[in-house]
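On clarity, I found the account of how folds are encoded harder to follow than it need be. Since the whole study asks how a given chain folds, the encoding of that fold should be made plain. For illustration, here is how one protein appears when written out as sequence plus structure tokens:

:::
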Amino acid sequence: MPGAASTAGSGGGRIDHVVVLMLENRSFDNLLGFLEHPKADEFDGLTRGPHHNVNAAGTAVAATADGLPSGVDPDHSHEGALRQMEPFGDVAANGGFVRSYETVMGEANADVVMKCLDPAAHCPVMAELALEFAVCTAWFSSVPGETWPNRNFAHAATSDNTVNIEAGLYYDRTIFEVIAKKNKSWHIYYDGTPQVWCYPRLWRPRTFVDFLLRRPANIGNWFEYAQFADHAAAGTLPSYSFIEPAHNRFYSPEDAPRRTTSQHPHNNLESADDFAGGDALIASVYETLRANPTQFAKTLLVITYDEHGGLYDHVSPPSAVPPGDRVWRGLSRLIGRWLRARADREHKQQRNKNFDFRRLGVRVPAVLVSPWIAPATIVGERLEHASIPKTLRELFAPDAKPLTDRDRAAAAFHGVVVDSPLGGPRPDPGGPNPLGLPPLPDLSGAARAAPPTHRTMARGAGGGRVGEAATGPTIDPEPDNPVDAELARLADCVDKRLRRRPATVLARRRAEQQAQPQTLMARTGETFPAEEAVSLFTAATKVARRAAGLPRRT
């Protein structure tokens, strides 16, 4: 890829907006390994195989393209990922996927982790964008492990020493705050319970200091996903937009089942049609951007996945620079926050005493989309989730200090746009094309097929346990599915924190009037006010925008 160093600190007039959509738990080979790319010699997939793992009986199990978006959820814990990356030498050989499955889930059907998707059949939107724009063949997850630490690296270039999911609040400085100090705007678009809630500094209501400085509250930067289209159409997208998919599975006795859009194995998949909801979300984001050509010409869309989900990939994860966390800065040294964060940090450090963060996690799919990117572009430079804050910092805050040492060491990816050889942005099909450039693909049909989004996490209005028939939407947290419990714990933290703030009293009252407060019964049997948390949070964002004199949908 053309280097970004020559254009560091500037989008070259070609990037004013960055949009990141991060989905769930797919390795590169599982999703795109069998993509029929025209540059077959450069495309590091599975078509030049064979590739295999050996099972407990010593039999080679080959990677094949006959997989389906199954409901099986292989082990993708930190410990599981390390087993899958074995045997280790200077690099991991990725020879342990089948044995890892056999160890945790039994020898039957262990070949499921080697069964990859047919991109054209199962994820046609992602496949089309990978062919029409830039596919990254060396984008790795930042941690060999689960969702939480990897998503945190995308926001803060650190996981605060965690390697597995620690559902709670984190106090690391994030890229949102870095660019905000340079007067660059940011939005988070969510559907249901967003994982990025784990950073309370990003949604704190307006404080007295904010009032004195005439500074709007961060919580005013959060919007339900439906408003992304409004902002894009109006040409008011911020410098940075982060989009969370719907993580939870919903059922309504009155409506058709509403699936998640994260593409996480098992948590949301019962059929190929269900998996297609995530593909439709990708198309929806792309088409929403394409509908405003002027804005799209200065927008870079990044589509990636947080971690590999225990699914096979043949490329060895390379070594990495430890984050070297520097968490305590500026106002975060205030005693109250310091004590809360220190206690939380020490608790997390007790969970990880062995991993030194000197190795990246398994490779994941990543596609870069811009009208300035030529079809069939391949980005072979090593990237990871910390490349997101690195790129945003170089674009929007070039003189800001890196978040962590990992941020400093990570490669940026905006050079694929800034140094593009195209003479101009690619046009819409059928539109004026004086330069004779390849037209942009039209994915509007796939976008229209997207399932309806939901607005709240809720269970039955009748007060029954999760999964029982009721008059409202319900969540069905499968018996062995921890995702609902993790998000419910996070919602509980948010709910408690917001209720302490006088600034959200009005929001709470309105939320209670508009929604029937429900609770989510997590897998552990504990009760969490998830419905109230989402309703309260959504109402609080509107109150914050009104207090700052901002329009409700801007």
Remarks:
- The mean pLDDT is 79.
- The two ends are 36 Å apart (CA to CA).
- Residues 272-290 form the longest helix (19 residues).
